[in-house]
Amino acid sequence: MKRRFSDEQIIGMIKEYEAGVKAHELCRKYGIIDSTFYKYKARFGGINVSDAKKLQALEGENNRLGRNEYDTRGS
């Protein structure tokens, strides 16, 4: 699934929010709904860009390992 925003962009949104911009204004600026913003905040709040890249790499590895396990069991 293709995402509309990169991890760096999402972290930028959260940093704007932490700097005092209201969530409603950010949602309007980026064209997202409130629930999407708060989902991003729950996932990426408190991390920086390098941490997000590490998280994405680990998630990719977990998905790859899960597919490998499924392939070996499914055959």
UniProtKB/TrEMBL annotation:
SUPFAM superfamilies: Homeodomain-like. It comes from the Bacteria. One of its GO terms (molecular function) is transposase activity. InterPro entries: Homeodomain-like_sf, Transposase_8, Transposase_8_domain. Pfam families: HTH_Tnp_1 (PF01527). This is Putative transposase. One of its GO terms (biological process) is DNA transposition.
